[in-house]
Write a structure and sequence with these properties.
The chain is α/β, with parallel strands linked by helices. It is 61% helix and 12% strand.
Length: 492
């Protein structure tokens, strides 16, 4: 027992000692990139932009020829920058609070997300010159317009802000006794406001105005926050020290500013996209989004079930074996995986392992979910095998059956009946739990649901659609599994 525990601690220890090393090597990569950042992009021929398209008019999505595309002033600016650099633009979408991690781990080359170049962010990334000045507002329900007139009227109340944003910190600091609730997406914030979970939303002025314009039940309050100039500005973030890239981008920005393209062209285009988004907000109109989402959810689940099953079987036999090392490794693995949340594992594979090999989000998602599922499947299989009475092995062995023969002809056929229903349970929960991959930007059903919410400015309808789709899939699967379970009974 003691030994087992010791081995487990060793394994965990190993994992954590390896981590700083991998980070150190990434850090040296960064310093090496100091002067070559621009050359590197030009050599690659692509500029990878990280953004969080839930922030009209900065960045949001719209449907063009049945496909979702990223639009907004940040996207227009990024396109111009890529054109000036003579490279292609590739856009990677993720939650706002993952963006700077993605930048530091080299998943993206630059971040544009209506981001304020605050002093604390400046410590870890390099910013371009300011390209736009916004300001901060508070969005409220129109019916409350008499109650709330400035930031002072929110004292002792609850306000919402996007997680990881400067607005979140500002609300906490500048409104006395306020409770600040963080949400990942702009659409979630609006929904929370409309269902009275929060009394107001602290939001960048242009974005607040966009929501106000598209939703007659909302109105805006001037927060009168004390703001430094950085806190009203937006700038582009690069890896710390990527000065050559930042310099080239600043040249593009200067050109854009000289022609006043942001006000004259980009914001106008964004405005017309916002109008098209609200013309037809029926869920049927968005069926392609949901279809794509469910497709990815099924894809991730199918792969993860497959790999999880193989890994689980191996682990189960390792744990059942007499070999002490096999046993210890399998036990340590299972305990560690079961003892940490899937969400953290997904971030570890994507961002952590990503420091060493740059895996795409979908692959990372499949790997993390499979690794996770393997631990649970192992226990299901082990439990099933253990549930077959020891007497059976003894009888089979004394009749002269070999060890593997006993397992194959006597134990497994009986064990499978106990394993099957539990395995079915595991697969059904895997379909639902795989939804966490949306945090790294995999376009699964949950991710698409959020996009439809922010496109249509409708909160509840997309949730209902996603719920129904999940149910149809899991119910279908459970019927299928029950069918096979029934057949196994007849086979008896
Ligand atoms: N300006 C705020 C910040 O930098 C919020 C930006 C949120 N952007 C987004 N695309 N959701 O903290």
């Amino acid at each position: 027992m003691k030994k087992k525990f010791f081995e487990l601690i060793m394994l965990i220890g190993l994992l954590f000692t390896a981590l700083p090393f991998s980070q150190a090597s990434a850090a040296t990569n960064n310093t090496k990139a100091t002067d070559t950042s621009l050359a590197k992009i030009q050599k690659k021929g692509v500029l990878v932009l990280g953004t969080s398209p839930d922030y009209a008019p900065y960045e949001f999505q719209t449907t063009k020829n049945g496909k979702s595309v990223d639009v907004g002033m940040d996207i227009s600016i990024a396109k111009q920058i890529a054109k000036d650099l003579g490279v292609k633009l590739k856009i990677k979408n993720m939650d706002f609070d993952s963006l700077l991690v993605a930048l530091q781990t080299g998943k993206v080359d630059m971040v544009m997300a209506g981001m304020n170049p605050t002093p604390s962010r400046r410590k870890s990334v390099t910013f371009s010159n300011v390209y736009y000045k916004g300001g901060q507002d508070i969005v409220i329900n129109k019916k409350d317009a008499k109650l709330y007139t400035s930031k002072k009227s929110f004292e002792g109340k609850t306000v919402g802000a996007q997680t990881g944003t400067m607005q979140y910190n500002m609300a906490k600091k500048q409104i006395a006794n306020v409770t600040v609730k963080g949400f990942d997406k702009g659409a979630d914030l609006i929904l929370a406001l409309q269902t009275n979970k929060i009394d107001g939303i602290v939001m960048e002025k242009p974005s607040a105005e966009a929501y106000g314009k598209n939703n007659p039940q909302l109105s805006l309050v001037n927060g009168h926050f004390n703001l430094s100039s950085d806190e009203t500005s937006s700038a582009i973030a690069f890896q710390k020290g990527a000065t050559s890239l930042a310099g080239a981008v600043n040249k593009s920005l200067a050109k854009i500013q000289k022609k006043d393209l942001i006000n004259k062209v980009y914001l106008k285009e964004a405005g017309s996209h916002m109008e098209t988004n609200t013309v037809n907000t029926s869920m049927f109109h968005y069926w392609k989004y949901f279809a794509k989402g469910i497709g990815y959810t099924l894809l991730i689940s199918a792969f993860s079930v497959f790999f999880g099953f193989i890994l689980g079987t191996i682990l189960a036999f390792m744990r059942l074996s007499r070999n002490k090392i096999f046993k210890a490794v399998a036990t340590a693995y299972i305990e560690f995986v079961r003892g940490t949340p899937l969400m953290v594992q997904i971030m570890f594979v994507y961002f952590g392992i990503g420091l060493i090999i740059n895996l795409p989000a979908l692959t990372s998602g499949i790997i993390a979910v499979s690794l996770n599922s393997g631990a649970y499947v192992a226990e299901v299989i082990r439990g099933g095998i253990n549930s077959v009475d020891k007497g059976q092995t003894e009888a089979a062995r004394s009749l002269g059956l070999s060890k593997s023969g006993t397992m194959r002809y006597v134990i497994l056929p009986q064990a499978i009946k106990n394993i099957w229903p539990a395995l079915g349970n595991e697969f059904i929960s895997l379909i639902k739990e795989s939804s966490i991959v949306s945090i790294i930007g995999v376009t699964d059903l949950i991710y698409q649901l959020k996009i439809v919410q922010s496109d249509t400015y409708r909160g509840v309808a997309p949730i209902v659609v996603a719920m129904l789709l999940y149910f149809i899939v899991t119910f279908g699967l459970s019927k299928l599994l029950a069918y096979f379970e029934g057949r196994m009974k007849h086979a008896n």
